[in-house]
Structures
1.
Amino acid sequence: NAGVTQTPKFRVLKTGQSMTLLCAQDMNHEYMYWYRQDPGMGLRLIHYSVGEGTTAKGEVPDGYNVSRLKKQNFLLGLESAAPSQTSVYFCASSSGYGYTFGSGTRLTVV
Amino acid sequence: QKEVEQDPGPLSVPEGAIVSLNCTYSNSAFQYFMWYRQYSRKGPELLMYTYSSGNKEDGRFTAQVDKSSKYISLFIRDSQPSDSATYLCAMSGWDFGNEKLTFGTGTRLTIIP
């Protein structure tokens, strides 16, 4: 049972490049989330989804887009990466009793 | 003022000591309270999940909630080096059927052998 799988685990981007982070869960959870974690800032919610085909903005959505075309997948896109987006990104899913997190994606924008 | 306040530490204690980790919150709508443990370069994992005021015990871990004071605690008894991690408190309110968690910034704990 894989739980929540994030790909890639590491990535280095140049300023202005685009990329997509993939999150896949095999627990049939309705709710999925994207967070970024920065030193001293804790976990901050970027976007979330309450079900297939739905997305909503979180606390820090600017510069990011998401899609949830299939229930098990939640994609996070960066259209034009900026150094301020250097962070560790975590995906999580939930059935309403606490979150299950992936292992994270370490993104560096140079 | 942040909705959830957590002392960032770092906190270092000798093996076998009792550890107390705490969070305060300001939002009365929070109903569910959780503690997550995060090892270095890993994702957070759910450690304890509580709903009502009072204590909940699971092995060496005890979660305590005082809704009247808006204060939650996690106690670790007989601490082990494997308990060295960052501990995040989290609280949940429900918004249009969606469980939304608000996290503390985490306390880094080191257990010294």
2.
Amino acid sequence: KAGVTQTPRYLIKTRGQQVTLSCSPISGHRSVSWYQQTPGQGLQFLFEYFSETQRNKGNFPGRFSGRQFSNSRSEMNVSTLELGDSALYLCASSSKLQGSDTQYFGPGTRLTVL
Amino acid sequence: AQKVTQAQTEISVVEKEDVTLDCVYETRDTTYYLFWYKQPPSGELVFLIRRNSFDEQNEISGRYSWNFQKSTSSFNFTITASQVVDSAVYFCALSGLNSGYSTLTFGKGTMLLVSP
């Protein structure tokens, strides 16, 4: 089975721009979660989508948004980029058939904001 | 609120040494899950193990073993006869019933450096 894929792998943007990151989950997985990883704050949960609905959201400003499509693929968008948004953005998928199914992570998108 | 503490920021060992990575957690949930992930330099988080709060049995998988002790809220990870390929950052994580299990709370990670 193919793993979680994320595109693009690297991205460079300037302050004030917006960016869209894409995540394709493992086939059959219906839950997609997003995490931000920075040296200072570590790994932090952004949001989770299941069957096209956002089910949980972390403590991030409204500039961070996401969506999920009917094929379970997900996108996250960051508007009005700030220098502090530079990070590795990781997407994870799980089947969510029962309890706490394991989340499997993609390789991440490394975003640099100049 | 949930919290995971990995007190060891960095550990350096020589190949073939045994090494234990510590993880202490806090949660008010009675049902929760604990995880360990490995992050090599490539950046992808690789799943290693999941353990639920009702299963305190220790587990061994090859050179890896995990010790879960609910009484001390710890879930430690031991690598026996370490190898250079074990060099990575290791994260302990927790998910609980109150968040619908959808949120992983991570520790800050322990960087393991194994030298030849």
